[in-house]
Structure formats: C-alpha cells, structure tokens
User: What shape does this take?
Amino acid sequence: MSEIKKFSELDLIEPIARAVAGEGYEIPTPIQARCIPHLLEGRDLLGCAQTGTGKTAAFALPILQRLAKSGGRKSRIRTLVMTPTRELAAQIADSFNTYGRHLSLKCTVIFGGVSQRKQEKALKQKPDIVVATPGRLLDLMEQKLISLKGLEYFILDEADRMLDMGFIHDVRRVIDVLPAKRQSLFFSATMPPAVAKLAKRLLTDPVRIEVTPPATTVDLIDQSLMFVDKDDKRKLLETILNNSTVSRALVFSRTKHAADRICKQLENNDVAAGAIHGNKSQNARTRALDGFRAGKLRVLVATDIAARGIDVDDVSHVINYDLPNDPESYIHRIGRTGRAGRDGNAISFCSGEEVDYLRGIERIIKGKVPVDTDHGFHSDDAVNGLEDGEPAESPCKRQAREQADRNRRRRNKSGPRLTRSGAKRASGGSRRPKSPSKNRAKNAGPAKNRRRRSKRSAV
Assistant: This one.
C-alpha cells in the first residue's frame, strides 16, 4: 500500500471529505493514513497508538462512510463505541457529529453520573451510533432499553485504561452479547498481557497498526524533572505559573483531595483554575473542561481518571505535581501536550517519597528524564530519596504500613486470638466431663435398637 500524504487520497465520500476540509484537515496523521484504508475494506483492526495521535478520526471517518454507503439510517444501533470516561465519550460523540454533519446519521452518547431520562429519550430516536461508558451501557441493557442484536461495528477505545479502572469484566459482559458477524476495532495506548488477551478474544484476523512502540513518549514533548521537597511543591508550581510562556497548563495530582486543594490555592493567588476528578458531578466536570478549552481557565487540575477525556490541542504545559504510581500513566499524562504536531512541555515534580515511582517511569520510557536544577526549590534530599534527612517511603508503602499498624493496634486492644485448644490450655488444661445422661443416651441409641439387642441376647 503506497504512502498516503493527503486526505484527498483516502477515497472518502464527498459529504465526509467536505466536513474534513471544513475542519482544516489536509494531511492525515500516521495512524489515520494507515488505519482508514483497512477499515474501509471491512477489516478488524488492532491499533496501538498514544493519545493525541488522531485515532478518533482514524476510526470515525471510515465507520461513517461504511454506514452511509450501506443504506444510511435503519432505525437500530449499528455502531457501538465503548470508552472508559464520560469526557472521552462526549468528545468522541462530538467528533462523529462533526465529521458526519452532512450525513443523515444520528449519534448519541450515554454515560453515568447524570439522570438517564435524556439518554432514554435519545435512544427512542433509534440512533445509528452510540458512544458509551461500560456501567451505564450495561444498566440500560439490563432495562431492555438498548439492544445490540443489529450491531455491525464495535469499537473499544482506550482498552488499557478500561483495565486500569476495573471495567474489564463489564467489557467482557458486553462482548459476550455482540453479534458474531461484525467489524471490530480495538485501540490501546499500551499493550499489557491482559489487554492483549482481550484483543485476541474480540478480533478476527486483525490488521495490527502500531504507530509508535508501546510506552514511548512523544518526540515533540520537552520533558524535565525537578527534585523538590513535598512541602515546597506549591511554591514551585506558583513560580512556574508566573512565567508567561505557560499559557495553558494541565496539572496532575495523585488524589482527588489534592486536586481540590491545589485548585483552591491557585484561585487564592488569582490564577484562573478548575479541577476535574471522579468526585465532581458531571455538570461541574463539563463546565471546568469547557472553561479550560475556551481559555477562560488558564489551569486545569486533574487526576488520572479524567486524563483520557481531556482533548485540548493547545495545552502548552503538562505539570506532574505528583508522579503517578503507575508508570504507564506518565505516558498518558504528558500526551495531553504536544498534540496535533505542536511542541509541548512536560514538567514533573519529584519528592523523596516518589523516587521509586521515577525509577519505574524511566524504565518504561527507556531513558532518563532530564533534571532541571535551575529553580529555587531544588532538594538534594529528594534526589537521594530522603525526607527531612530520613529515608522516605512511597505513599503506597506508607499506606500499607499504616494499615498494618492499625491491624496490630486492633489485635492488641481485643487481646490475643486463641484457638479452641489454646483456650482450653489457657483455662487450666482440664477437660470438662460430659454429662452422664448424655453418655447414656449416646450409648443407648434408639429404643427400637435396644429391643433388638435384648432379643438377640435372649436367643
């Protein structure tokens, strides 16, 4: 297959080509150039690509074309896209609506965290395309509000994140009810063994498209690492944001509470900021994301759960306020900058307790993250894995130790746990004799047996 350099070479039908041109697309990304021809031919596909490579268009454009060419609307769900987060589901649905705006096809999105009434109403319109998160999809299927009997195309997006978020069993339940005859697409930024096993179960003779090797970082991203004591992270963040080159920053924290705390601190310093994480209502998450995308918010603070749903092309900086304990999450985080061929910047803070996380990240990216010591909060203790001059422990190890301490205190408070034999020894070792009446009743047995024994002895 010859190399495709322009969208005009992809043999897209006129309504889709017009929508693509209206978005200003001229040159397809590598994954688009390699995926679209195979998908137009009806092949199953296994795509391994980082976030920000344009894979949504890589599957949306050919699926829209095949739906349009096979007769348009048929008053049933013909395409299902499953994705892990609400934000990503909403953005994929927006992409389908954008690319298919000159077609008569209907697309709807369903996810949890909101009332399902509007989603029920949308499903009654018999959409051709449904983009869904696993939990709400299964709820509606159990209520008989969704039927997948007529499904023709199934797309599983961000499969590795599905695994990380514990959705893998829900995904299997959905796969079990899919029609045998269908075209299936499987996309994942990374390919751990469990994800590869799921892909093998779902796909039939797939084409494998691997734009970049799994767990490699985007070349256009300028990465840097700053060693800093945990208590100085807030001041370091404020110093970085004082630089005017940081036009739009995405800040990642490890926990939801930390995200809220960072956001509040930034707002107190007159920085327009919002937070997005799992504890936020869907409306609050949408408002924050829309404000960040529109430029009303300069900083968006997020946890890893929400990372995959943030699709903003002009994020100038990603700042890892906390290093992720899962090394592959580092790839997903920094993939939020340097999108659509632009340069990007990723700055990571590392305290003494996070040195183990840093080693895991550098193993998976197969290289060292360049260290920046040219800031006022550089910490040699953090470099050496120390905290206040003492060896630090990672948050995961500290959590395990604290849980062990709680269990130990609980056991000490309730006294030693004794076995039954131990309890007997503790009480003096004597064995309480059985009741004579019970012994007689046990030896005697039923009255009928006693009569039989008396007759045999008489003979």
User: Anything to note?
Assistant: The chain is about 45% helix and 15% strand. The chain has two domains: 7-210, 221-398.
